[in-house]
Amino acid sequence: LEQGNIDFIANLRYWAGHPGEFRGLFPRLRVSPIKPWCNATAGYSVRAMSFDEALDTINKVVENERDSHEFLYFRVAGPWLPWPQKSYVDEAMEEYKELEYELSRPDEYVRRDLHDF
User: Fold this and answer.
1) Which of 5, 26, 66, 107 is 20 to 30 A from 101, comparing alpha carbons?
2) Closest Cα to residue 2, out of 55, 58, 73?
3) Domain annotation covers residue 91
4) What's the mean pLDDT in 14-31?
5) How far apart are CA 68 and CA 33, in angstroms?
């Protein structure tokens, strides 16, 4: 997060954060469920005004979900995140769209690197 990444997947088996808490004004509204990504079985959007507040919120969610899930996807938003902000999900979706476009072009020859054999 400190390097501009706005999303990540947490492995709850190895997550060693302290027990967190929901902080700030209307703290429960700062966390909302979102669609999971990759091997995560649940996802959460976290909005926070500082890195510490985001980490506390993430730790609280991890503490609550540790028995239910092994992997959680988090997407974090806040004014403290440095620019340029990078999203692994957005980058993967762009790559997927480019690949889908390449595969859908009927006038092109079949390229070996775009297909599994």
Assistant:
1) 5
2) 55
3) no
4) 66
5) 14
Q: What are phi and psi of 9, to 5 degrees?
A: -110, 125
Q: 5-14, 16-25, 32-41: which has the highest mean pLDDT?
A: 5-14
Give me the number of domains the chain comprises. Answer: 1
**Collapsing DSSP states into helix, strand and coil, what is residue 75?**
strand
**Per-state percent for the chain, helix, strand, coil, to nearest 5:** 35, 20, 45
Q: Where are the alpha helices (DSSP H) in 1-117?
A: 51-65, 88-104
Residue 113: inside a domain, yes or no? no
At residue 45, φ and ψ (nearest 5 deg) are -100, 130
Q: Specify if 67 maps to a domain.
A: yes
Q: Look at residue 21 in the predicted model and tell me its pLDDT.
A: 62
Can you give the residue range of the structural domain that contains 17? 7-86
